[in-house]
Amino acid sequence: MTQTPLEAATPCSETLAARKAWMGLLARAKPARLADLCPEIPTHDLLRAPEIGAVMVRGRIGGNGLPFNLGEMTVTRCALRLGSGAVGHAHVQGRDKGHAVRAAVVDALMQTDQAEALRAAVLAPLQAEEIARRTSRAAKAAATKVEFFTLVRGEDQ
Amino acid sequence: MYVAVKGGERAIDNAHAWLAEERRGDLGVAELSVAQIRAQLSLAVNRVMAEGSLYDPDLAALAIKQARGDLIEAIFLIRAYRTTLPRLGASCPVDTAEMAVIRRISATFKDLPGGQVLGPTFDYTHRLLDFKLAAEGEVSQAATAPAAMEAVPHVMAMLDRDGMIEAEPLGNDVPADLTREPMELPGSRALRLQAITRGDEGFILSMAYSTQRGYGRTHAFVGELRIGAVAVEMEIPELGFAVEIGEIELTECETVNQFKGSKTEPPQFTRGYGLVFGQTERKAIAMSLVDRSLRWAELGEDYTGAPAQDEEFVLMHADNVQATGFLEHIKLPHYVDFQSELELVRRLRAEVFATQEAAE
């Protein structure tokens, strides 16, 4: 990982892990749901206007070997600075510029004293819904797990 | 020969207006929404994403609607769109061992950690038309069971531990990208996999089938087939660390193949690998067979002249957008080319008749 000023400003690995967790959650969120939870966009300066682009997704040969290019996915990125000076970044899945702006706003606000309020209002519901969705799929998959049993064949008796 | 031709604008405009009307079809029938296509024709959406080489279910659904269900046309639309997007970077390689599997089966081991999970499969259905689907309002409820919510290990890792299967070379080399530089053959295995995963499902299927029928036989078993969601992470240069930028569904197939051993390698199993966007298991299985077949030189096997062993043949004919572009262009005006052919044949005929007359 390359050393950057921002990493130097957040030396605590727990802080970094927490930030990575909310950035990922925001990136995976449904744009409409994030807009419901975060209807107000505070005034901000755009450091990087929302931009739709593609990211080349890589896999590994055999699951663990050398990388190869699997194909691209759409991603929208944005960076902004709030009035308080907090800077937020976002790379979110899909092509919704509002999604990227809101994700960057939340990322910025999470680095301010509004973090706890925002965690309760935005991140907690997103996380709960994501867990519910994943649990539901895993539970349906679990119901399709094969229980093998051996049949007694006539000639064996 | 290409010569600019003018004219036909009105005919073209009218043809496209009629195309739009035909696309909509009978106005007495409700219009299909993009959301409906995305949700209810999801395997078509997956195929368009895989071969369009762009993971975006909404765009793929839109392309299917615009293309009136012609999937190769839809793939063409997606490929055209993706060329307009700036490349924001490349992801860290996805970790399929951490996949949240909805389906995971092995044809080689009955009892394996994590078990055999069938998922939403067509397997074991009777392939009888279900006329209940023709009636509206059919909602089925899937059963549930307590889930462990933990990653299931790769089956291959079990064989790997005992040295029973070839070890995969490890590393972080930047792979060749055929969307950036023209394919140079012979290519690396990474380049071949990129070409195959975006290749035409029908073509890859037929190539794989040909190896099963004996044209470059590789005796494949499906060691593991898994479908599920994986996180996509990317290093963000301005942040200096990697963040998740989304989640995608993938199908992965690993085959175990016979290998007698060589001068340098003891007898052990070898691998074929398939990884495809979406729920696309026919394609992923076929990909792993074709991948293994193309590895004959590296494994010191004989080249039997089988099409599926011929890298140039497979890779240069796998792309359905290239193929259909070249194939279908011959229906476009070639009036001048044909005029010259016509004159040539007339002259040759005249010469033949003149010789015959002189002989008589």
Question: Characteristics of this structure?
Answer:
heterodimer; A: 157 residues; alpha+beta; 3-stranded antiparallel β-sheet; 5 helices; 44% helix; disordered N terminus; B: 360 residues; 3 domains; 12 helices; 38% helix
Written account of the structure:
The complex is a heterodimer of chains A (157) and B (360). Chain A is α+β, with helices and mostly antiparallel strands. Chain A has one domain. Chain A contains five helices and three strands, in the order αααβββαα. Chain A has a three-stranded antiparallel β-sheet. The longest helix of chain A is centred in the last third of the chain and has 28 residues. Chain B folds into three domains: 74 residues, no CATH class; 197 residues, no CATH class; 26 residues. The mean pLDDT of chain B is 93. Chain B is globular and about 85 Å long. Chains A and B meet through α2, β1, β2, β3 and α5 of A and β1, β2, β3, α7 and β4 of B.
Strand order of the largest sheet of chain A: 1-2-3
How many domains would you count in the coordinates of chain A?
1
Please give the count of helices of chain B: 12
Biggest interface, chains and residues, is:
A-B, 59 and 88 residues
* Topology of chain A as a string of helices (H) and strands (E): HHHEEEHH
What is the count of β-strands of chain B? 6
Strand order of the largest sheet of chain B: 3-4-5-6
User: Taking all residues together, what is the mean pLDDT of chain A?
Assistant: 90
- The proportion of strand residues of chain A reads 25-35%
Uncertain segments of chain A: 1-10
Tell me the quaternary state: heterodimer
| Elements of chain B, N to C (H/E) | HHHEHHEEHHHEEEHHHH
DSSP summary: helix tally of chain A? 5
Q: Which class of secondary structure composition applies to the elements of chain B?
A: alpha+beta
Main pleated sheet of chain B = 4 strands, antiparallel
Low-pLDDT regions of chain B: none
What's the overall geometry of chain A?
Answer: elongated
Global Rg of chain B: 25 Å
Question: How many domains comprise the coordinates of chain B?
Answer: 3
- From the N-terminal CA to the C-terminal CA of chain A, the straight-line distance is 65 Å
